[in-house]
Amino acid sequence: MNILELTIKKASEDLRNKKYTSFDLCAECVKNIDEKNKELNAILEVFPDWKEQALRADDMLKNRNDNPLCGIPIVIKDNILFLGHKASAGSKILENYVATYSATVIQKLIEVGAVILARANMDEFAMGSSTENSAFGVVKNPFDISRVPGGSSGGSAVSVASGMCLGALGTDTGGSIRQPASFCGVVGFKSSYGFTSRYGAIAMGNSLDQIGPIAKTAEDAQIIQNCIGGFDSSDATSFSNFEKIKKSEIKKIGVPWNEIRKDGIDKQVLENFEEGIQKLEKKGFEIIPIEMPKMVYSLAVYYILMPAEVSTNLSRFDGVRYGMRLEGENLFDVYTKTRAEGFGSETRRRVILGTYVLSHGYFDAYYRKALLVRDAIGEEFNNIFKKVDAVATPTSPVPAFKIGEKSSDPVSMYLSDIFTVPANIAGLPAISVFCGKNDEGLPLGFHLTAKFGQDDSVFDFAKKFEKEN
Amino acid sequence: MNKKDIESLANLARIRLTEEEKEKYAKDIEAVLAYVDKIKEVAVEDKNSDIGAVFNVFRDDTPREINTEEVEKIKNQFPEREGDFLKAKSIL
Fold this sequence. Notes:
Chain A has 469 residues and is of the alpha/beta class.
């Protein structure tokens, strides 16, 4: 059995045709982890109870469980809680933290018999675009180990791309599922805000975060999304008004050429995207050039709102109730020492930046203004969606970059998310699909953002797009 | 943004920084602020910001049964524990 060539769809059929058991399938993935992880560093831990989980799934299969995820090995990002299992969010401050409850998405996966095989390395607290910021070491891109896998869900994307599992969960705050998916040649999806429960995901930017799938094909990603999505009363931002949403097929695709053809874009990324657009045209999609002058401000808005939310969210890690604690002379000393030792450099930088934009005298100029621009960007999308059904861009303006290349220049690192951030700012569903490789053999991604609630249509589009390639 | 600004922010954020870090962060944050300052170019109407698709979600404030096993799991995560209590430094 070759995991690299196996989809969830196919494995699910094979399991029912008794070609192999879930136990065999999971064991093969664990074998691949053993062989490849030393080099790639994608997996932090294979969960000690994977065998029991697989045997339970085999029992469920014998009893004719008909969910396509039954018996399928899934890797989860290290910031998603799984009761009784470690969840460290890639941080030293939570290195030995054991989850005291399971995230809703995990409960749903277990209910259908999926095997939660392992936890994946990630940028600390999901802060990063390269998975170089993990307290547990840099993750490598399987297509070229001198390059980053993207981030922050780099470990999840690599685990799918290198045959360590059949599907993975990531979290996406500004592109953290879609950008690594594109760098690793797999599919990554972020749902409309509120469509996937955040209960049990270690929060980074609550108004932006969504849990979502990474898989080899759009169909596989949809199988996972169908399981994990839906209303959850444990998440106060969960969306429930599904009857109000009318599915509409994506036919007209807007392309903001002015925003794409800018200095920062890699020549081959642009050519690859143009080819992708031509293929869609041949397939009968209507391609409409659009102008979205406000969309480009998304990244600036993001780097105000996100650190603000980060600084408040991470205040809970203070060495008092759980996680790391360093002793000090007084309580203040315990706080400052623990947070200095426990948080990595990028995390501390963002907490301080967030503290700044929320502080008296700067709040109006930064935080409040960013909220207003966020609304304006949402409005621009709404107006554009009167003319087109979706907006297409490359997933990232650059292919996977070299390890260390951007770590000394935060702004240039942040710019690799320029096309993925708008979907988080406006709360829209978006996907990255594989769109071929550049001359160096590095995968490139095609990115599509659609109207709020058109999550299923995004998958329909992605499946058609894959047929084109 | 200078070293002193970073010091006072780090103090507010309860993070101890080394001298070297203070200088580095002043430079880094300066660069990020130079980038995000772009939002000043956008003309927007000053109004109450719109909220997302879901808002004002309330639930009844009723106590929930929680079993001792669950409670024990939470207590096991305390950095320091004395019996059923979480041990921490005094505030004053």
